[in-house]
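Everyone, study these two lines:
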Amino acid sequence: MKIAKSAICAVLAVLTLLCGLATSDFSVAGQDGSTYFFYMPDSWKDVHNDYYDGNSLDSCMISVAWISLPSYQKKYVEVQRCNDAPNVFSFFIPREAAEFIIGNAVDPYSTDDKSRCISTTVIKNYSEDQNEYEGNDFSTFWINRYEQNKNVIFIVDPDSETINSDGSRSFQSSNFYYYGNGKYGRYKTLAEADYKFFSEGAFPTENPEFVPDPSQYNEEDYAVYFDTAGAWDSVDSLKCKLYSLNGGEYIIQNDEVCSCSRVTENLYKYDLSKVVKLKTDGVYEICFQDSDRRTITVTLGAECVGDTVYLTNEMFAYPDNPYVDYYVCKWRKNSGKYGFPYGISLKGDVYGECFRKGENKNIVIARWVFQNLGPNSKKTDALEKVYRYFNISTEEESADIFDRVLLMYGENLSSKKKELYRNIIVKSVYNAFPYLPEPEDFPNVNSVVKLSDATTVVGGLATVNVSISDNPGLTGASLEIRFNRKVMKLIEVQDGEILGKAVHSNDYDVPYKLLWENDNSKTDFKKNGVIARLTFRVFDSTDAGDYPVQVYYNYENSDIINAKAKKVKLNLRSSSIKVTEDYLPGDINGDGVVNNIDRAVLTRYVAGWDDYQEIVKPSADLDNDRKITALDRVILSRHLANWSGFESLPYNK
């Protein structure tokens, strides 16, 4: 079959070469490499029985080719039938091979609809200095002699069939230790290939006459383990449930197959052979729980057979199940690909190391938002923490999360609730990431759009001027203003009337858009000066400090253009608002002066007008009784009218 390198590797990269010492010498004299075995399924032979007509192929029935690097040249090897077992074949792969393919045709790369094959990679790049293999997943594998990579037999997994576009078929395989005479046993994929099993005699060490017991590691020992040491030192009993993420349901329910057996004081074994044979491409979730309802949940696949789950001693509260204590856990050998599935606590703390099959970060966040944040929720701190953890920093990303909410739960939401959820999900990204990275200056460009600095008090007003200098001429501009929504809000925008028609946004939320559109103008607007004034109200809850106000535009997006419809380059200078706790008595609106406007604002505040409830409260308590009443309004009125005894504020009785 002429299968592309990428297709071979992508479809069958899960094949793992396993290692052991041969009970007899299958090596090729004078060559450096390893001998492997293959069990030929009858289904492969039957399809191509017209090829075996008494010629030399009749003694083989399979062919093997290996790939060399960097030329990626295909080379064939001799295949021998093993006399001691039907359908078992052996072949030698040189050390320099990068991958090899086993097929049932004259050429394993055949492209007809009768072709079947498996493909895999081999261990390579052995470093004598480092005493290990480099360049692949085996870089830290303990085996440090290439000749030990022997007696691996590949058994075709019939459920893994992939039909290629040319009609040929590719398969995955399971890997076993071959004992000879057709007998083979499971070599627990990487998880148990360590010194522990050497010391226990699972595989031969120094004694070349040692013959391992084929029943010691066969299909009957098909289990996963749970080490309860640490947070679960005292366990009376342990039960388990296996959940298929492919089929979407628990595979087992009754207590007999749910029980785990104790191996040592803290080590428990869950016998999978009583339950199900894990599919090679299947993804599952397994849940261990003791009599105290302490629980761990972890994803697993076929590679996890023989591996052990252990506790990290972190606890986690699933929002949708507050009555169970969950503990964070990891696989010893398969951490990362499988493990504790990502979950989010009520406070927005993220735990886990992998996604369930078919999930991604946006799906996990969408489910959590719907379960924990009502559409009227104003407490978005937890969501902002989640956004920062997963680096959800753009409105496009947050909008996708909202779309996921609609997809999963939209049928049960009214139009009003959908809009409320959208505001929470999309706008919270600007709380988590209020500012964009400052853009670099364009070289040799003197034109600048600049924001002025401002100073105000807690609860006060601050005006920031947006100005342009060395104006190169423009007809259209879109400037984005960003500020921290949890510190201040934009309450007023005034145009500078030097850039033509202003169509600024009526939505004063972040990011705010300043827009000028002069599409029909044949000449550029070239005046310098203030192009807009922005007035902010600092919240009473804001701490003293400096808070940035940022201006931004996207040159590549043609946000600023001239009369010739060409993009315009401008450098940007952002600013900050300094917030202090010093206040001016009588300055009710926080604009830095005391006048009749303050008297009017205070009068309306005391009267309960809705639009006048945001004032500088320390400045309004003019009799120091820690309350704001009509008496404070009277004192301010007399101060402004220059009554004797009311010359200074606050008023001292």
Q: What stands out?
A: The mean pLDDT is 76. The radius of gyration is 36 Å. The CA atoms of residues 262 and 268 lie 4 Å apart. The chain is about 15% helix and 30% strand.
